[in-house]
Design the sequence.
């Protein structure tokens, strides 16, 4: 994101302290991660130390500092999903994708992540691919779930 | 500057109410699809599309509408068929194919009873009309019979995006009364007398909190709605925000009048995109109609809210961590006192309440504190919304009077354990809570009883566990969760949880040692006494409550290197019983490791060296020929 993009973003979201996390969330959404250079430019534009932005970027789970894949596969490991076999779903995804949670496939198609509860506890186990939620999952349905995400 | 749509008179409200009533009962065939997150995750979008297509082809005058969550998540997607002068019919377990067939039947005037769930009051006049022979009424269904759906009354019954429908069902009339005839002190007194306690988990008396903020020195004062519902297993706040967001806004606006605040914040979890969307829509409409902003309802009250999205940190549900997050800092809790009521956001008096707490306010004030006190128990008044999930037959969101027993929730409402298995425990209070065993099922659900039993009320997550749940694994699960979510600021929590997890990991691997229970106990006492915030001080609860009630499982893991529930992978083995195996090969087909071999129609075998204990063969075998143990 260049300085123009950052200017537009900051003008839209705000420059006060309460807007810092929201600004980073917008960058995360647009770029798929928080590029180092963008953070540097943001620090300059907002007149805050870069370390402050890093503190937020590394504290909050919403942010990643390295690029993610085209699609984010997120397995819910909430308690209700856990007792209904979420670990099995995660293991199956690890097997199918060939990467561990937190990693991206070599072809950059998928990033595998975990989350502790998306609030779909009554239809667990649950996984999200991008903004689509899949409930009542079974290990043998996992590969099919990924098919339409190129 | 007030918008041209601003509601400033009773007539304005009445006009909006009429508009809403017309939309709810349009005098024509109306099909409504439940489109909250659970419904969508089960395929409600496809149902909605199909229904719109079919109606478009055969009956273009049909009204197709969306609603939120009616609470019976087990049977989503749900659809309502509403005709003038007749009770509505709710249909369940739908998909696109069934929806197409259903629409064809409905447009032909039929009621497809075999797919119906029940009837509800729809566009029918009077209760007498509200039944169809052969179909139960909603309130007679076991799932709903013992519920008191008051806070949830609009959820799944109105379009959550519609301000008019909110007003038509009683919305904003309380705010009108409050701003035109109730002094702030009087409002605070009513909330105090109602006995309402914080529904986020701690159960602090809400009226006392409001009184403290009102009396605190400092200006401006702030309101915060804590919608950072982080307890895994709990989703009542999400559902309320998606299905009746105006109720929360109205509660906060009344609160602002009572406490003297001009600015409020709603802090919503990042993981709840639909709830955020619904809130944004509701806030925009409220502003456009003079219900937020300057001169609300034409009075002197000026109050507006700002939505803040969480960053994915469980600890931000803790009030001081949430405040730090709003201030643009990492969500690290701080020492209390001073409490937020005295010194909160930017050092100013701040009233933080949970979503469900705010949503209780309009009801309490319109029916009166005494009416509210008649529901529930002496010290835990009103209702509580629980998410009943896990190994239960009927999963969903239930609103029950405080004082109902756990047994009633699990068996009468929840329908008992799914798949005919044996009940083992109910976990309440999330990672701060504990597990309650069968012998305590007759406990009344109230703050004190649950705390005495070693659990807590928490935000209302009720996770049912059965004979296939390993209680040592449950304790390990929660420590794993808390280790990731601990902010790391204080040593008791940071080091204590880490150490407890190491011990539990060892136990689950079959490397438990004799003194482990004693060590876990002493770690627990240390964390309870010295952690900086409730995340750390309640972290021991899952461990201590499972040791208290399920000591035999710990002993089996530590001394016998055995997992009785068949969960801990290092301690279980999968074996094919040669006497019951028919050699169909279904297991070999699904095995991701190629660990199963055998000739057709001959008993198969599992190579233990290759087996990763995923259990897919066990799940897929129709002969029950695979043993786990």
Sequence:
């Amino acid at each position: 994101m260049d300085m123009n993009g950052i200017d537009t973003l900051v003008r839209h979201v705000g420059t006060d302290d309460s807007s810092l996390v929201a600004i980073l969330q917008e960058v995360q959404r647009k770029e798929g991660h928080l590029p180092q250079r963008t953070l540097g430019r943001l620090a300059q534009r907002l007149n805050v130390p870069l370390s402050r932005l890093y503190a937020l970027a590394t504290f909050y789970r919403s942010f990643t500092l390295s690029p993610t894949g085209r699609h984010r596969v997120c397995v819910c490991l909430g308690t209700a999903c856990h007792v209904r076999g979420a670990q099995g779903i995660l293991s199956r995804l690890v097997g199918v994708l060939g990467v561990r949670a937190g990693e991206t496939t070599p072809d950059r198609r998928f990033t595998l992540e975990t989350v502790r509860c998306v609030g779909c506890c009554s239809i667990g186990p649950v996984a999200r691919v991008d903004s689509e939620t899949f409930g009542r999952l079974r290990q043998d349905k996992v590969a099919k779930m990924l098919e339409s995400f190129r | 500057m007030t918008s041209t749509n601003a509601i400033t008179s009773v007539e304005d409200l009445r006009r909006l109410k009429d508009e809403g009533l017309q939309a709810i009962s349009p005098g024509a065939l109306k099909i409504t699809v439940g489109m909250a997150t659970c419904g969508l995750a089960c395929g409600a979008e496809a149902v909605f599309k199909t229904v719109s297509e079919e109606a478009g082809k055969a009956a273009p005058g049909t009204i197709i509408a969306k609603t939120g969550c009616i609470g019976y998540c087990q049977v989503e997607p749900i659809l309502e068929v509403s005709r003038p002068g007749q009770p509505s019919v709710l249909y369940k377990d739908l998909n696109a194919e069934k929806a197409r067939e259903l629409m064809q039947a409905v447009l032909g005037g039929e009621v497809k009873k075999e797919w119906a769930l029940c009837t509800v009051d729809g566009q029918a006049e009077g209760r007498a009309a509200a039944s169809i022979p052969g179909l139960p009424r909603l309130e007679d269904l076991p799932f709903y019979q013992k519920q008191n759906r008051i806070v949830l009354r609009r959820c799944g019954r109105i379009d959550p995006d519609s301000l008019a429908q909110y007003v038509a069902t009683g919305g904003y009339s309380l705010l009108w009364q409050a701003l035109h005839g109730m002094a702030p002190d009087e409002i605070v007194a009513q909330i105090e007398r109602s006995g309402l306690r914080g529904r986020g988990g701690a159960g602090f008396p809400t009226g006392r909190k409001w009184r403290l903020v009102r009396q605190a020195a400092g200006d401006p004062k702030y309101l915060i709605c804590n919608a950072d519902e982080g307890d895994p297993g709990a989703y009542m706040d999400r559902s309320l925000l998606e299905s009746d967001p105006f109720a929360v806004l109205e509660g906060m606006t009344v609160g602002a009048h009572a406490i003297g605040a001009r600015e409020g914040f709603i802090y919503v979890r990042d993981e709840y995109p639909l709830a955020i969307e619904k809130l944004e829509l509701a806030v925009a409409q409220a502003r456009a109609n003079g219900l937020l902003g300057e001169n609300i309802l034409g009075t002197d009250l000026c109050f507006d809210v700002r939505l803040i999205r969480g960053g994915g940190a469980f600890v931000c549900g803790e009030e001081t961590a949430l405040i730090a997050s709003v201030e643009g800092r990492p969500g690290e809790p701080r020492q209390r006192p001073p409490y937020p009521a005295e010194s909160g956001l930017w050092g100013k008096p701040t009233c933080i309440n949970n979503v469900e707490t705010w949503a209780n306010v309009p009801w309490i004030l319109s029916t009166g504190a005494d009416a509210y006190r008649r529901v529930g128990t002496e010290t835990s008044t009103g209702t509580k919304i629980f998410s009943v999930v896990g190994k239960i037959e009927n999963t969903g969101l239930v609103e029950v009077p405080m004082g109902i027993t756990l047994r009633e929730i699990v068996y009468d409402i929840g329908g008992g354990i799914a798949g005919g298995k044996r009940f083992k425990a109910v976990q309440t209070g999330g990672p701060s809570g504990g597990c309650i065993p069968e012998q305590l099922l007759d406990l009344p659900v109230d703050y004190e009883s649950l705390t005495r039993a070693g659990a807590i009320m928490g935000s209302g997550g009720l996770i049912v566990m059965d004979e296939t749940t390993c209680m040592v694994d449950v304790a390990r699960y929660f420590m794993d969760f808390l280790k990731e979510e601990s902010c790391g600021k204080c040593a008791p929590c940071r080091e204590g949880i880490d150490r407890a997890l190491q011990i539990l990991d060892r136990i689950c691997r079959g490397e438990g040692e004799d003194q482990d229970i004693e060590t876990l106990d002493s770690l627990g006492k240390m964390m309870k006494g010295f952690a900086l915030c409730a995340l750390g001080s309640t972290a021991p609860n899952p461990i201590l409550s499972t040791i208290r009630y399920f000591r035999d499982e710990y002993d089996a893991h530590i001394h016998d290197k055995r997992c009785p529930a068949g969960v801990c992978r290092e301690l279980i083995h999968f074996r094919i019983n040669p006497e019951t195996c028919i050699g169909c090969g279904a297991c070999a087909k699904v095995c991701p490791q190629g660990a199963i071999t055998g000739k057709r129609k001959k008993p198969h075998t599992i190579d233990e060296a290759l087996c990763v204990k995923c259990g897919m063969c066990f799940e897929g075998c129709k002969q029950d020929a695979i043993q786990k143990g």
